[in-house]
Amino acid sequence: MGAGLAGLRTARRLLDAGVDVELIEAGPRPGGRVRTVRTTLDGSPFAAGQYSESGAEWVDSVHHRLLGLMDRYGVGRLGAGEQWTTIRRWLYWKGELLSPERIREAEPTVAEQLERFDAVVAAVAAGIVDPARPDLHPEAQLHDARSLADAADEAELSDLARLFKRRDSQGEFAEEPGAMSLLFAAQQRAHQAVEAAATGDPAGVVAHRCDGGFTRVVDGLAAEVASVLTLGESLLALSQDADRVTVTTNRRTLVADHVVLATSLVPLRTVDWHDGLPDDLREAVFGLGYGAITKTSVQWPRRTWPAGYATTESRAQRVYEPTVDQVSADGSANGPADRGGPGILMSYCGGQGGREWALLDESTRVDQAAGLMAAMHGLTDAPLGGWSRAWSAQPRFGGSYAVYRPGEVTRYWEVLRRPWGRVHLAGEHVATCTGYMEGALESGDTVASRLFAAG
Question: Pick from 322, 68, 369, 82: which is nearest to 213 by CA?
Answer without folding.
Answer: 322
